[in-house]
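Input (structure):
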């Protein structure tokens, strides 16, 4: 506010407003051009491709994978070269039912399991079933999860898909970098 009796011309007001607008635009431009808010580029990541003269490159589309774990959960991503080596229903145990699947090759594997029932009634109870070494909290598609080393070898991630349904995925050490991508690819029935 301008005190009474003190007049400042319209030109000065316009100049101050223009200066404020210009300064704001400069700050916004600096933020966007600095990369603020972008995910960090991993060390050792390949530099952007530079076009080279020659025959046109042929793009190869990624093949979608559909790997069923149980009747209501499936994976849409698995690393190449893995074949299904086992799976089926979980043996009947009190309060637990569901399915499991194993995909592997000679030196790599992915194991997934879905558990339904009172064993997965809530996250606190289900988390206690996860005996992972060096465990740390994380999320899988916005759901609470824990990730760490599996006592039997490899890495594992455990999460509560919804009340009454828990899931976990275990991978060999050679696929440790793919664990989160595999877990994020889990899909379930529409409406859940």
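Output (sequence):
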């Amino acid at each position: 506010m301008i005190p009474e009796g003190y007049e400042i011309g319209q030109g000065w007001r316009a100049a101050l407003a223009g200066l404020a607008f210009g300064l704001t635009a400069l700050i916004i431009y600096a933020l966007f051009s600095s990369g603020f808010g972008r995910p960090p580029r991993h060390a050792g990541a390949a530099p952007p491709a530079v076009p080279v003269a020659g025959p046109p490159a042929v793009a190869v589309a990624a093949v979608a994978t559909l790997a069923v774990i149980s009747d209501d959960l499936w994976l849409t991503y698995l690393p190449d070269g893995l074949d299904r080596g086992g799976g089926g229903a979980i043996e009947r145990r009190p309060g637990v039912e569901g399915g499991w699947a194993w995909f592997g090759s000679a030196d790599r594997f992915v194991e997934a399991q879905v558990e339904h029932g009172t064993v997965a009634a809530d996250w606190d109870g289900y988390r206690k079933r996860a005996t992972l070494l060096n465990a740390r909290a994380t999320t899988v598609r916005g759901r609470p999860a824990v990730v760490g080393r599996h006592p039997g070898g490899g890495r594992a991630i455990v999460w509560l898909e919804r009340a009454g349904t828990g899931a976990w995925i275990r991978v060999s050490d050679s696929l440790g970098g793919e664990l989160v991508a595999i877990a994020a690819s889990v899909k379930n029935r529409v409406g859940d």
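Notes: Strands lie at 67-70, 73-75, 83-89, 97-104, 109-116, 133-140, 143-149, 155-162, 165-171, 186-188. Confidence is low (pLDDT under 50) at residues 42-64.
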